[in-house]
Amino acid sequence: MVNKSNFSIEKKSASSSIDLASYFFKVLSYWKWFLLATIIAFAVAKYKNDRKIRGYSLDTVVSIKEESNPLFSTGTNLTFNWGGASDLVETVKVILRSRTHNEKVVSRLQFYTQYLVQGEYRLDDAYGKTPFKIKVDTEKPQLYNTLIKVKMLANNKVELSVDYGENFNRISLINYKKDSVSYFTPTARNYSEEFTLGDKIEKEHLNFTILPSRTGGNSEEYFVQFGSFNGVVGGYRNVNVTDVAKGSSLIRLALSGPNKNRLADYLNTSVRVLSEDKQDQKIAYAVKTKEYIDTLFIAESKSLKDIERELGKYKQQNNIYDLSAEGSKIFEETTTLEREIRGVNDNVRYLNELESYIKSHSTYNSEAIPVPASVEVSDAKITSEIADLIQKSTLRENLRSTVTANHPQVIGLEKEIATSRRILLENIVTVRSSMRSKVKTNRGRLQSYSGKLRQLPKKEQGLIKFQRNYEISEANYNYLKQKSYEAGTAIAANVSDVKVIDSAKDLGQGPVYPNTQFNYVLALMLGTMLPLFFIILKEVLDNKIHTVEEIQNNYDIPVLGVVGKNMLETDLAVFTKPKSTVAESFRALRSNIQFLFRNNAESDSSSKTLVLTSSISGEGKTMISINMATVFALSGKKTVLVGLDLRKPKIFGDFGLSNDFGVVNYLINQKSLDEVTHTTQVPNLDVILSGPIPPNPSELLLSAKADEMMAILKEKYDYVVLDTPPVGLVSDALELFKYSDAVIYVIRQNYSEKGMMKMIDEKYANKEVKNISYVLNDFSVSGSYGYGYGYGYGYGYGNSYGYHENDKPKTVFQKIKNKLNL
């Protein structure tokens, strides 16, 4: 039995710890991968950083809080402003993202006009950096999506030129007022004309004024392009609107883009348009009320003058100027009652109009809601409900411009509007019923005073009638005059609910994208992680044998030694270059294999038989056989190399022999053993080739003739080396193990798969096979599979430190030549 302590490290258990140092050096050996991946990643990062358009982000902070005019009472403010404070911030958020609002902003700034300048990689946005500005005539057509070159000349002159391209038969024009596209056919491919800054240009395809700008510019040539109005609006609807603090009335508007001047102008103009719209909405009811009051005031003023003239005429004609005490009392009472009845009737009439409007409409706003005749609704609850209905309706319409009708928020608002509408109509019925009851009561009281009035003299009755009409008309006149003043003051003194806390401004902010530092850090990470990932993946998927340790840790059969890469064109490495590291590795194998021979108690003869096999073809079994036989022969021992791989013979080529006859001819009694034995150029070494390929190689090797051959060879030679077939393909080699004093099982580095040795290892563990060892062939020292200093200590291969003649690696051409057998 082989003493494993002389040849191998004891097999590690499955639970053994990972050799981190070994794995670190293995990963480190792929440093070229890491370097290449990092260089590529940094090149890509630099390309993206240089080529990608710089993007900036600006923001503005505004306060959205309902402001009431302290000069007026609560009732007055309710009269002139249906708005409410609840959900005001959320409503503003929806408005800022709405199509209607952004259309107003784009139209005011004419942002469909693009100002461009030729940059290093592309046409860059030059808005706010040009010595001119375009004011578009929106009612007339402009060139659509076509570059207009603007060349700055001396004396405030500019040259406009257009290249329509080869296909200029149908050029698009856009009319921003009508939002329509038309076409025209230019007379030539190119257009060019000079103008003076400030000129109004009126052409079939160009209709704008080119104005001087104070901003100036560093270039002599610029480009102008008129784009899609709807496309520009859609691009700006992605403005980011967020709360500065949860539950507060402060919101932040943020916008990103390549031009900070454009961002600042858009954000500030957006807030300005919002403020103006909110203020207009806030005073819309007051404006409408004042217009209605002024109409009534004019009519009441004319009526008052007519009554005053008739009253004076009556007094003069009837020579009566003052009322009696009884008449004065009746006059005051009836006047008060008629005034109350008239006021209540006005409110009833308004409630009827309001009810009709609510029932006949599904959308409600402060501009269309009916104005009360008395300019003051007596029931504050109705006023509050109208405000709530208008607010919810406005929020719903704003939402509809951004989401579909099936959106949960829209559906929720529909339900809330329906509920508010029902409650408002119920309150209108209740209040109107109460007012009608009051009118009925006052009319009864007025009827009792009418009886007393008839008891007065005829002239006094007539005077009371004229004076009562005068008093009522004068009271209405003064009331309307007061309310007109209040409405005008409310309009003039109205304060916007939108206040700017921080306006958007270019303060030298750096770009938010591309994030150059992040891209470089990401490049470094990718340059490290991607190779590491592929290395790990390669290790996981790799099932090849690479190191002696892998054999020792996974199999019971000990490792006899390693054989390095043979750089020669012949397998006779030991004979051809006896001082090479490969030759030295075979001498180490010759020394180590003596332990196998000594431990073979069954072998009593001085002749030793060595069997060489492997798992599959191509693992270098024949090369090991040839060189093991050579080292035995060169040591002065009479040696014979027998080719028993009858299916795929190879030995003859390296010795320059013909495979016309051999073992097969002997086994079938065609030749004698001496006739099939060849003397080689290696002293003390004879070779018996396999001969022609037989149809029944297994039967020949198991025949009695084979036993006779082996007995003769063991008597004649000191060492018999048998080159047998691979055990992983055929069973012949296992049958030949009976002749062996020692067995070498060849494994090739980076070629043999880990599971191939399982069968032979199990037979060894079950003691079916004895005196067997592994030899790792075609071995090269690499940091990829170890620490990098080789296996020279104990296995006969490693760093030579000048003691060996190391062969130069084959060139690529030589490798191709060998592959093609040229």
TrEMBL record:
Gene3D superfamilies: P-loop containing nucleotide triphosphate hydrolases. It catalyses: L-tyrosyl-[protein] + ATP = O-phospho-L-tyrosyl-[protein] + ADP + H(+). One of its GO terms (cellular component) is plasma membrane. GO terms for molecular function: ATP binding; identical protein binding; non-membrane spanning protein tyrosine kinase activity. Its EC number is 2.7.10.2. Residues 612-761 form the AAA domain. The keyword Nucleotide-binding applies. Keywords: ATP-binding, Kinase, Membrane, Nucleotide-binding, Transferase, Transmembrane, Transmembrane helix, Tyrosine-protein kinase. InterPro entries: AAA_dom, Bact_polysacc_biosynth/exp, GNVR, P-loop_NTPase, Wzc-like_C. It holds the Pfam family GNVR. Belongs to the etk/wzc family. Belongs to the CpsD/CapB family. This is non-specific protein-tyrosine kinase.
